[in-house]
Amino acid sequence: MSKLKAAVFASGAGSNFQAIIEKRDLACEIALLICDKQNAGVIEIAKKHQIPTFIFSAKEFASKQAFEEKIVSELRKIEVSWIFLAGYMRIVGSTLLQAFPGKIVNIHPSFLPNFPGKDAIEQAYQAGVNTTGVTVHYIDEGIDTGPIIAQESVAIYSEDTEETLKKRIQEVEHELYPNVINQLLQQSEG
Ligand code: GAR
Known about the structure:
Layout: E1 4-10, H1 15-21, E2 28-35, H2 41-48, E3 53-55, H3 64-77, E4 82-85, H4 94-99, E5 104-108, H5 120-127, E6 131-138, E7 148-155, H6 162-187
Parallel strand pairs: 1-2, 1-4, 2-3, 4-5
Antiparallel strand pairs: 5-6, 6-7
Helix pairs in contact: 1-6
């Protein structure tokens, strides 16, 4: 039986994308990378692994609805059933949410509901708290408010800099996200 197809959406360096595609027993095929930044590092990783890309520029579309309709049509063309956001720095709109109900998942670098939104690692570091974490959650209309699937905490040490903290958080992300993806796919029927 052929594997289910999934797409990863990313805007940045792509370390999570890389961790997902390099997981040896990944239960789905990553059939497409969707990227909204022409020069994002993640595009090179996709090329290296021969994963097709759809790269778009939001400002070339009249609205979020217009670019999301185009994305939905790209995803339908190749029968993608799951979407995994991995550093996709846009709020997902109703067009995508309605096209893929319960099938859009995100990773966020904090222990939600703490520190939602942008710069979550910096927010936690600046707040002076002694733990933060990583959350994998379903996407809904809010900003990092959807139902939580899995979480792991990460300690913040007094000797940490923002960079050392980021490195430890990302190590947790790279382990957690591919494992959660496999669990979700094994539980689902499509
Ligand atoms: C990751 O740390 C991810 O959790 C975060 O962006 C980074 C992307 O890094 N996502 C968010 O902040 C979403 N609100 P990567 O491009 O190296 O995977």
